[in-house]
Amino acid sequence: MTWTVSSLGTGYSINGPVAVTLVFAVAAAVAAGVGAAVLGGTLLIVLAVLPVAGAVFYRPFFGVLLLAATIPIENILNVGGLGFGRAIGLAVFGAWFVQKIASRQSWSRVVSNGFFPAAIGFLIWVLASMLWAAHPVAVRSGFVRLAQMVALALIIIDLADSRRKLDLIAKVLVLSALAAAGTTLYQAEILGVRRAGGDIAGGINETAILLVTVIPLGFYLLRASGSFIWRLVGTLFLGIAVVSVVTTYSRLNLLLLPPLIALLFLLTVRERRARGWLLAVTVVGSVGAALFVPWDKLMERTETIDAYVDQTLQFGQAQAATSPRGYHLRIALAIARDHPLIGVGYGNYGYFFRDEYQFQVPGADRVYGSVRSPHSAYLGIAADLGAIGLASWLLLLGLCAMSGIRAWRRARTGGVRDLPALIETLVIMLGVHIFAYGFYTPDQMDKLLWMIMAMCIAVGYVVTADLENLGDREGVLGSERESPIAGLYVGSLQRTDG
């Protein structure tokens, strides 16, 4: 879009986003002059943030990359109650929405897929639960957070319109996760932090879940990247991330890691150019394990897995002993049974746990005085939103998974190069959450999960565009081969030779 400055009589045309950015820069300069006298040293921070804000406003996709970078390490860099991640998210949404309106850009990528109505329907049901919730403030807070997740997903679907952009998001996630893995390893080996709950890069289980989720992207760099540097980054990340996951002693992730690594090895070994890097990953991982893994403590931890899993799986039997996690699941199941259709209101599980159900459901060895987490997305949503809410969430996950699978099939049969490796990676990452973490953690609030879901939708559009480009190219080549002028030219050559 261009705006013509006809009122000045110059006839000068300027790009709309550029004009708005220039106005923003002038206003920022004026604000800096005024703030110098008021803010003092704080002005330095403001001046450092302004160029980033301007870049985000001019190119919202740059903000998406920044947001991706904050996801693995936002627990480390969190400042106050807002946090860098949420601040960047709000800036990205504002810039994207203003540009969509000001430039009259098409909304077709946002609304012309099943994700949009399914996500909006889920949000509407969450908000409607305020009508019957005993604690509507919790519903409102949860709705705001979920609305932010949906907005993030819609922005990625709209802006990640090429393989290059999807590839950039993947690379930024790996780089940031490499920093998070290094921090985890440093805290475990240098600071001596073990099973301390919340002080290993934002939490034991949360850190392990994040690293295990991003590990497939490390293998993707080995498979699809043609750059030596990026393959080296992938190798270092895989070696450090695997050791870091082990040092968290997170039981579910210790169970998930071996089969996931085996699957990714099988997929990667098919690529001839990646086989040597697999050997490098093995060497780096082995050296890291030998130097940093406390095998005696790891063996002690793994010996508890069988008993812990058996106890947790007893949560469905009311009188059987269960683990603390299993007890939380048992109460979620009890609430879902008592409120099967509409639940007790989004975010209200913890209040019902604390105030009522822990005194009615046997199995706890103590009285809990705080609002609790259900430790499961599926059972937690079933308790909060009933069968309707759970079906809406499963529909949303299923649409994203099917979008990725269909894109993979079309890319393979249509001859689209490079994309199948990325699509396989995204589907595996989403599958880990659907079939494992959805039962283990309330991951409907996980920004990384929503980013993966959005990329599974966006890659379908990218495959369609690539197939259309291939079809147009083949059509041009075919028309050149069938051109009568070209035929006359060839014929004249043949007659001359004769």
The share of residues in extended strands comes to: under 5%
Which blocks of ≥5 consecutive residues have pLDDT under 50?
1-12, 77-82, 195-202, 484-498
C-alpha-based Rg, rounded:
27 Å
Strand order of the largest sheet: 1-2
What is the approximate shape? globular
SS content category: mainly alpha
- Number of spatially distinct domains: 2
Write the H/E string, N to C: EEHHHHHHHHHHHHHHHHHHHH
The major β-sheet equals: 2 strands, antiparallel
Oligomer state of the chains in this structure: single chain
Alpha plus pi helix count: 20
- Average residue pLDDT: 83
Helix content: over 70%
Q: What gap, in angstroms, lies between the N and C termini?
A: 58 Å
Number of strands: 2
Outline the structure in words.
This protein folds into two domains: 14-105, no CATH class; 108-312 and 367-461, no CATH class. The protein contains 20 helices and two strands. Helices cover 75% and strands 1% of the residues. It has a two-stranded antiparallel ribbon. Helix 3 runs antiparallel to helix 4, helix 9 (204-224) runs antiparallel to helix 18 and helix 17 (377-414) packs antiparallel against helix 18 (419-440). Strand 1 (2-4) and strand 2 (13-15) form a beta hairpin. The chain has 498 residues and is mainly alpha-helical. The longest helix is centred in the last third of the chain and has 38 residues, at 377-414.
